[in-house]
Amino acid sequence: MTKKSESAPKTYEFKAELKQLLNIIVHSLYTQPEIFLRELISNASDALNKVRFMQVTSQPVLDPDSELKITIAVDEKRKWFTIEDTGIGMTRDELIQNIGTVASSGTLKFMEELQKNGKTPDGDLIGKFGVGFYSVFMVTDEVTVETRHAGLESKGYRWKSDGKGTFTIEEIDRKERGTKIFFTLKDEYKEFAEEYRVKSIIQKYSNFVNFPIQIGKEKVNKLDALWRRSKDEIKDEELVEFYKFIASDWEPPLGHLQVSIEGTVNFKALLFIGTRKPDNFFTDIREKTLHLYANRVFIQDDAIDLLPEYLRFVKGVVDTEDLPLNISRQVTQQSPVMEKIRNVLTSRILQLLDEWAKNDPGKYEKFFKIFGMYFKAGIGMDFTNKEKIVKLLRFESTTKPKGELVSLEEYVARMKPEQKEIYYILGENREVVDKNPNLEYFRKHDIEVLFMTDPMDVFIVPQLDEFDKKKIKSIDKADIDLKEKPTENPEDTLAESSLNSLITVFKETLGEKVADIVASKRLVDSPVTLVLGKDSIDPQTEKMMKMMNMEIPAHKKIMEINPNHPLIRNLSRLNFGNSNDPILRNTIVHLYESSQLLDGSLSDPGEYLRRMNELLIQATK
Ligand code: ADP
User: Which of 14, 46, 149, 284 is the pocket-test mutation for ligand 1 (most atoms within 8 Å of CB)?
Assistant: First the structure.
């Protein structure tokens, strides 16, 4: 039943944020206007996947016999562009919902950021996000969408907009299901009404769309499922092209993996590891890049259950004969078939990484620098493969310049005969950690220490207890069995009685702030350092716990003082004169706070500076 008012075009307002997005798209994506075609084809292909899915799951659809395809028509003289699909179409509500709002809130934020920085989005940046349907307003001033949903009860609608703030919708008499989008190109973009130009863009971005794309009588794209071909039938260029298509990446992948399994589970997979570094750990890099097919029928484009989370950087296609077509997301999650596929893929990917590590260390290191932050989390998630993952971990080390990585195997191979443990130091970055006084002993004795300075390392350290039967230990832990350091000039060292008396003053001054004060065996160039007792939490973990609002058990550090250091000897001299000397007392507090500053636990820098200034005044009097 059609109400009269519905036959006249009705005007709607775009959501405010969409207006802003449109404005940004039109003004900042101008370097790559051809993107609009990729976006329209990708929407059409999604719509076709959806209607095919309805069909294979026996849901009734309009025009059940119409061919699933995309048709593009251009008219060079009139600068007309038309793209039509026989996909699922849209209802009136969907027209308002889907093309009147911004799909991903991240997109708008990202675009704003881009504009603020005055950056021109290059291919790589554009590849990072889908600009969607609205990119069409780069090349035209007005767009018409005519659509009819595949449901049997549907009606046809025409949506029209100049992309400036409003759109209209009216009911029309459309017979076929699917969507037709047409517009007149702006003068400066009339090239997109040239057939050969359109064909070359399709070959660039949309060659692997699963449905025929037709211009005139010609099918422009390849249509075979690449992953079903045998290895020697696939050319390298095709692999690269396919990767770029599926991952929306501009750069070729770092490597790929083709798997064909028959047996208790049957599937084919074509997987890739790219080179695009995620912005940060929380960037979702899995969006629509892991496709699941059941018997060549597209099921999901974000089938994250196919791989464990720590391998989320892997993109590609998995096609299996063992899943029913009408499988829902909940079912895929628990399906034993998915679990088997996941197990096979996981071990094959680990095997691939291991091959890289052995045969092409440069490539492996590149991989690890890009995706290590995800990958290393695997040691806490995948108990079955933990050992393999641990072998594939890489760290910076005191034996290598910044940027070079070492494995635990290499570390062990270099260990001194008398060394029994593997040492590491945890911290925020190499520069800061490098200056940590606790390293002095190790440097002096030529003992290698691994730098754990990646933000993820805090999480993996608790899982890293042993490698090759050797304990993996933080150099901060005070129970490290340090050999007595031979003193070069015995007269430089404080006599035991002076040292004990000084320690007493330190204890009086610092009181509850520290667990204990002891003479140090590890310090070489620094007067004091703070070390952890056997069971205390290191500062990085403490920070992390604070971030996660976890309760931190009370723990104090032990202060070690270096009896050979000139400053400590000076303090001992002051102590002889007057153990209450304010310079002595202030310096002790200052030394304590300086150590806190170094390990990142200083909580009141203002107070620290005030005390420092006081000391400077006294020193310059
Ligand atoms: P995205 O594709 O990232 O979701 P778009 O702005 O490109 O964002 O499209 C928004 C929505 O509009 C799509 O998700 C889909 O629901 C709908 N849509 C766009 N084009 C079509 C089409 N050709 N057929 C059916 N629905 C479409």
Answer: 46
Predicted pLDDT at 349: 98
Specify whether 454 is located in the same domain as 542. no
Among the candidates 416, 442, 474, a domain finishes at 474
To 10 degrees, what angle do helices 35-56 and 195-205 make? 60
pLDDT single digits (tens) 424-456:
998 888 988 888 888 988 988 889 999 999 888
Best residue for ligand 1 mutational test, from 29, 43, 72, 82 (most atoms within 8 Å of Cβ): 43
CA of 48 to the centre of ligand 1 (A): 11
E strands of 502-607, at which residues?
514-519, 528-531, 557-561
Using a 10 angstrom Cβ sphere, with 0-12 exposed, 13-18 middle and 19 or more buried, the burial of residue 417 is exposed
The model's pLDDT over 471-495, given as tens digits with 9 standing for 90+, comes to 998 887 755 566 554 455 656 678 8
Q: Which two tokens stand for residue 614?
A: 């006081």
Q: Whose structure tokens read 């699909």?
A: 85
Atom index in ligand 1 nearest the CA of residue 50 equals: 25
The residue among 200, 219, 238 that closes a domain is 219
Atom number, ligand 1, closest to the C-alpha of residue 44? 23
Q: Give the whole-angstrom CA distance, residue 273 versus residue 250.
A: 13
520 and 454 assigned to the same domain: no
Whose C-alpha lies nearest to ligand 1, atom 8?
132
pTM: 0.71
* Residue 554, pLDDT score: 67
